[in-house]
């Protein structure tokens, strides 16, 4: 089964992330979706509940918008409070071993701007090294980030269409993983 950790600070106004999450839920009604902003508007993450959720699933997807070259604050808070010593890493920290870590990221700028000569200078894979290192430390299988680029310039109908297509590709990828 798959767990989707949704981290959008203003989910009700989201088009891309909301469409992706809703489409994935439509395709796979058994997918567990945890909307961090709805669950923890005060940022007080329930460590035990989140760790139990992680234990129930083999594939962990983090769905979020790319903010200032990073994840939203609530997702960083989640990482800090949930992936603890002797749970995710350490001498007894093998609880996530061999599970898959997949980042599904909505990105405002087009993909060509995330290149050495582009506006943002680095490809998304380089900007997501923190996720790769987290996966390696937790003995997880890291899947390169799945990005929906150019969302800032799309009209609503196109964005909904592109986000649904992104969700379909993500679902296909998830089904290809053992």
From TrEMBL:
GO terms for molecular function: electron transfer activity; FMN binding; NAD(P)H dehydrogenase (quinone) activity. Its EC number is 1.6.99.-. The keyword Oxidoreductase applies. Keywords: Oxidoreductase. Residues 2-166 form the Flavodoxin-like fold domain. Gene3D superfamilies: 3.40.50.360. InterPro entries: Flavodoxin_fold, Flavoprotein-like_sf, KefG/KefF. PANTHER family: GLUTATHIONE-REGULATED POTASSIUM-EFFLUX SYSTEM ANCILLARY PROTEIN KEFG (PTHR47307). This is General stress protein 14. It comes from Kingella potus. The lineage of its organism: Bacteria, Pseudomonadati, Pseudomonadota, Betaproteobacteria, Neisseriales.
């Amino acid at each position: 089964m798959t767990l989707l950790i949704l981290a959008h600070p203003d989910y009700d106004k989201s088009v891309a992330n909301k469409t992706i999450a809703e489409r994935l839920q439509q395709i796979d009604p058994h997918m567990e979706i945890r909307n961090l902003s709805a669950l923890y508007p005060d940022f007080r993450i329930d460590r035990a509940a989140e760790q139990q959720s992680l234990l129930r699933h083999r594939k962990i997807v983090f769905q979020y918008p790319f903010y200032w070259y990073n994840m939203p604050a609530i997702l960083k808070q989640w990482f800090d409070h949930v992936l603890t010593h002797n749970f995710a890493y350490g001498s007894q920290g093998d609880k996530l071993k061999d599970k898959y870590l997949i980042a599904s990221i909505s990105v405002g700028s087009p993909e060509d701007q995330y290149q050495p000569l582009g506006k943002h200078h680095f490809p998304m894979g380089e900007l997501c090294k923190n996720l790769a290192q987290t996966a390696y430390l937790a003995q997880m299988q890291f899947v390169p980030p799945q990005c929906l680029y150019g969302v800032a310039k799309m009209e609503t109908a196109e964005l909904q269409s592109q986000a649904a297509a992104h969700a379909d590709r993500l679902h296909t990828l998830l089904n290809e993983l053992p």
